Amino acid sequence: MRRVPPRLLQAFLFALTAFALIVHGRASAATITLYGYNVNAIYTISTSTGTATSIHTFSPALKQAAALATRASDGMIFYTDYDSGTATTTVFRWDPAVPATAAVRLGTTGVPYLPRSAFAPDGTLYAMDQSSTHIYSIDQTTGAATSRGTVTGIATGGGDMAFGPTGTLYVGAVATIYTVPVTGGAATTLASFAMSGSITGMAFDANGRLLMSTDDTPARIYAMTPPSVTVTQVGTVSGFMTLGDLASVVAPDVQITKSHTGYFIAQGPAKAYTLLPKNSGDAVTSGTITVTDVLPAGLTYVSATGTGWSCSASAQTMTCTSTTAIAVNANGNAITLDVTAGTAGIPSVTNTASIAGGNQPALFAGNDTSSDLTYVGGLKVVKTADKTTVVPGDVVTFTLTYTNGNPVSGGSAFQSIVLNDTIPGSMAFVSANCGALPASLTSCTVTPVAVGGGGTVKWTLAGSLNVGNSGTVALKLKVL
């Protein structure tokens, strides 16, 4: 004996209209935290108001809060405590993701006082002395300082340093901002400001603004967006407190937004998704960016293109790569992904795209996907049989259930539907009927073939098949 598997019927659709329904999938916004500290605690600082919220209390208090920096790769905070009695600067590491964990003492720098520190985009921790004449790198395991070069042209005193979105090193002293080669050399004066106090901290936010704290009591937060030298006061730190330094993560944060227009038609023409990458971080991307889209069942890849993108597909997975840099807080070049829909996608599928690379640290990898709910319409036909195992002479009844799978909201009715089923060579025609019609259809006509013969049986349905309505037709065949 042998099995005769049911087959999917190919439906021919006429007078089909389309309705535009827009469903967007969007990734969450980037979060870049601004930190500040003094001898009592580490705080998060609001970039819009200057409000400080304590997240870690020092016990005992530090002797002098000197320098603070945040490592982009994992969000670790590195800070120093300066003891003027022994002229010793000690480096600590603390994980803000696990606030209850105690800070780790790394060791002393070997340099008396380093009031400035910042992480470079390549992950190196730099520092500068109070005389503003030497740049050091700090060993992130032992805390030891190594001279990287000498600097000229900066006023003596405290202040801070910060790397900008394009890797430029900015140094603040008193009320003046400089740019400085990271290997040392002559500083370039960018601007001097009429502030009420002197600069104690500097850090960039996600919008490319250079934020600065002052030694006022309470501390004030100012902002400027290089190369512009216009400075505005963001706010005043809450709690009548001073701040010894500021820090933030300077790194790219790549995200993807996936969208489409209208609904897709099963067995209809190709439709397009738009995949739009964005850098929501505060540093320009570098290296290769990869966008991946694993198509769900019911969608089939056709093509993918985009300026600067190289795209390919393997089975249901589309992969596009690009080395084109994306600027801070800017969109990259869009990818157009064309697909076709099948009946397996009715009534809807959820398609998810992801993005990676661009020198984004793992710290920012939690917002790299975008899901797009897509409605798939069409005349869905499901064919079933009343037997799965047969022998010659058996009569099998096939039931064809047809459904208007268009979206309920705004979907259109199908008219003048024709169903065709071709009899396989291993079976012969016995009979065919229309079954019970849904109320919106007015008639059903069967065009049979000769009893005992083969060929194609046709059902012609008159009237309209409204959204969500279903009906059945039946076909009896004899196993040869």
How would you describe what is shown here?
The structure is a single chain. The protein is mainly β. 0% of the residues lie in helices and 50% in strands. It is built from no helices and 41 strands. The strands form 9 sheets. Strands 2, 24, 26, 28, 31 and 32 form a 6-stranded antiparallel sheet that branches. The protein has a 6-stranded mixed sheet with strand order 25-34-33-27-30-29, with no helix packed on it. Strands 10-11-12-13-17 form a 5-stranded mixed sheet, with no helix packed on it. Strand 14 (159-163) and strand 15 (169-173) form a beta hairpin. It is rod-shaped. 40% of the residues are buried.
Characteristic terms for this protein:
rod-shaped, mainly beta, 480 residues, six-stranded antiparallel β-sheet
Report strand %: over 45%
**Considering DSSP H and I runs of 4 or more, what fraction of the residues is helical?**
under 10%
Count of helical stretches: 0
> What integer value in Å does the Rg equal?
34 Å
Uncertain runs with pLDDT below 50, 5 residues or more?
1-31
Number of distinct beta strands: 41
Quick one: biggest sheet? Answer: 6 strands, antiparallel
Overall morphology: rod-shaped
Structural class: mainly beta
Q: Kindly, what is the distance between the CA atoms of the first and last residues, rounded to a whole number of angstroms?
A: 11 Å
Mean pLDDT: 86
